[in-house]
Design brief:
Low-confidence stretches of chain B: 1-8
Mean pLDDT of chain B: 86
Strand content of chain A: 15-25%
Oligomer: heterodimer
Largest interface: A-B, 58 and 43 residues
CATH superfamily of one domain in chain A: P-loop containing nucleotide triphosphate hydrolases
Order of helices and strands of chain B: EHHHHHHHHHHHH
Helix content of chain B: 55-70%
Radius of gyration of chain A: 21 Å
Number of helices of chain A: 11
Shape of chain A: globular
Radius of gyration of chain B: 21 Å
Number of strands of chain B: 1
């Protein structure tokens, strides 16, 4: 069986963050570490480890899990931005994740030049980019401002232009991180339509989400991740049940501990949200790079209540 | 965002040197091969991403002085101001009698400023693009390369002011001035090598960008810019100067543009060879640590 039977083939993937470097240490701190160190595992935080899964062509897969589970890191790895420290990833086809490009704009040059620049960063051929530019500008709907420096744009205009560039090319493999609550009502409707188009045209989709309704709508199969590992893989309905069950157990556990603490006269513990937030590690940057927008936008039409 | 389609060999952890252990017995041999492979890939990155380089250079040039009334005219004015300041310093304060001091100083200050701004800008070129690096996969080596290219173009414009200065000192013009592109090319390779190295290391240790300002300032005074090497005959400092690549570069600039004599060919060739070795080393270091950028930024 040739490998290319799979759109994505992830084997025993591990990605680690060096905690000392991510803390932006200076040379002094690093030297002090270096002098007394043997590279021990405690210096690393494994955002992902022993992750193995395959996605066939034509398949949509959901990735579920609490904050800090490594979902966004997984998308970055699939997009080729993070290299595996262990294991392997092979991807067959053009990958695209819908990112918030607005933050990467060059402020002093015009929107038009930014389109060209980002196209060049993405390695898109000049001719393709030239053909696409009019439709990118049209979709972004920023009128004569397209030839003004991006610094003069409103945040909404920047977001629209970023979205328009990011979605201009239909990828074979679409990576979605609960996009996208961009812009006003009118633009949101159009952007939802555009995402649906991309979803229809993509040969494989990886959807990362907290929204258990949208995942059921889009994906027949799902992974549930916790602390950088896949703890469940299977039909979405079962994955969702499994996840809900985990949350219920966790809540019960927290409630139990709270009761025990109260009985012992200790202060009230953190809520579940605070707990999961505390669990998300510094290196994981969950929801930072691939900004989490409102989830429901993805699932419309027929938005779940 | 979109990454170009690749005929995929799987990306494996083992492909990344420095992050995993190698079989110890073959370490030496492996390192050599790896070294060559990475340097070649770095050069390839630069060659295949010409359009990106071109856009980045254009953006860089637009960004500098974007909000100023005189805009790009500052490229001509900046070196003139430095020259005026040093002229006063050298002739009035230090009481040195240098023939046609403004031209004497300008022939060294103009290339030095090119080096200084290129290197300082390039050092932060990777960290400044953190947002993009976390979103798009592209060869990061184009960033310092674009910075230095933009610096080279600025230097080219600065030559207009040098030409203007010859209206005051026409007697210094000579055919040797035609050798200027050669000297500048050697300086460019040297600058590029340092820029690639520093921009990569600075991503992990931001100390580099702070330290660099001071180092560059000391370096300036340790180079024959506001004095000439001959003024130091009999001084031990001469030996320090002989280790400084800019001694040969600035001497060459001054020979062709001020004295009207041949550049220091031997010195230039030595600097070029050193720069090429350094460049290969820098590209290797950069390619090795490049994969970690997205995690740090």
């Amino acid at each position: 069986m040739p490998r290319s039977a799979y759109a994505i083939d992830v084997q025993d993937l591990g990605i680690r963050y060096n905690l000392h470097l991510t803390r932006r240490t200076t040379i002094k701190g690093s030297l002090a570490e270096w002098v007394g160190r043997r590279q021990r595992d405690e210096h690393y935080f494994w955002a992902l480890r022993h992750v193995t899964f395959r996605i066939e062509h034509g398949e949509s897969i959901g990735v579920l899990g609490p904050n800090g589970a490594g979902k966004s890191t997984l998308l970055l790895a699939l997009a080729g931005i993070l290299a595996p420290d262990e294991g392997s990833i092979s991807v067959h086809g053009r990958v695209s994740s819908l990112l918030t490009l607005g933050a990467g704009f060059e402020m002093e040059v015009s929107g038009r030049e930014n389109i060209a620049l980002i196209g060049a960063f993405m390695g898109i051929r000049r001719r393709v980019m030239r053909d696409l530019t009019p439709s990118i500008i049209e979709f972004a709907d920023i009128g004569p401002f397209i030839d003004a420096p991006v610094r003069t744009y409103s945040s909404g205009m920047r977001a629209r232009l970023g979205f328009s560039i990011a979605t201009a090319i239909a990828p074979d493999i679409l990576l979605l991180d609960e996009v996208l609550g961009t812009g006003d009502e009118e633009f949101r409707t159009r952007s939802q339509q555009r995402i649906r188009d991309l979803v229809d045209r993509a040969r494989a989709i990886v959807l990362v989400t907290h929204d258990l309704n949208s995942v059921a709508e889009y994906c027949s199969r799902s992974l549930l991740m916790e602390k950088g590992r896949v703890v469940f893989e299977g039909p979405t309905a079962e994955a969702v049940e499994f996840y809900k069950d985990r949350i219920r157990k966790r809540k019960a556990q927290v409630a139990e501990e709270a009761a025990a603490r109260a009985a012992a006269g200790l202060p009230a513990p953190m809520s579940l949200d605070e707990l999961t937030a505390a669990a998300s590690e510094p290196g994981a940057r969950d929801g930072d790079v691939l900004r989490a927008g409102s989830l429901d936008t993805l699932t419309s039409p027929g938005q779940p209540g | 965002m979109t990454t170009p389609v690749r005929a995929v060999p799987a990306v494996r952890a083992g492909d990344r040197p420095g992050l995993t252990q190698r079989p110890p017995g073959f370490r030496e041999l492996f390192l050599q091969l790896e070294y060559v492979r990475l340097v070649r890939r770095g050069v390839q990155d630069l060659r295949t991403r010409g359009r990106l380089l071109q856009y980045l250079v254009g953006t860089d040039l637009k960004r500098t002085h974007a909000d100023t009334v005189m805009g790009q005219v500052w490229w001509l004015i900046d070196p003139f101001f430095s020259m005026a300041i040093y002229s006063v310093l050298v002739t009035v304060v230090f009481q040195r009698s240098i023939v046609d001091a403004p031209l004497f100083l300008f022939t060294a200050i103009l290339p030095w400023q090119w080096f200084q701004t290129s290197l300082i800008d390039a050092t932060t070129s990777v960290t400044a693009r953190g947002n993009l690096i976390r979103q798009i996969q592209f060869p990061k080596i184009v960033l310092p390369a674009a910075s230095t290219l933009a610096g080279a173009i600025t230097f080219g414009f600065g030559l207009i002011s040098l030409a203007a200065l010859y209206l005051l000192y026409p007697s210094h013009l000579s055919p040797w001035l035609l050798a200027l592109p050669v000297v500048a090319a050697v300086q460019y390779v040297f600058t590029l090598a340092l820029a690639i190295l520093f921009s990569g290391v600075n991503t992990f240790y931001r100390d580099v960008q702070n330290l660099l300002r001071h180092v560059v300032r000391i370096w300036f005074y340790a180079s024959p810019a506001i004095y000439s090497v001959t003024a130091l005959q009999g001084s031990l400092f001469k030996y320090v100067l002989s280790l400084n690549p800019f001694t040969y570069l600035l001497t060459s600039y001054r020979n062709i543009a001020y004295y009207g004599t041949a550049p220091d060919w031997v010195g230039l060739l030595s600097v070029l060879l050193l720069s090429l070795v350094l460049l290969a080393f820098s590209i290797w270091v950069f390619k090795r640590i490049e994969t970690g950028f997205a995690k740090i930024l």
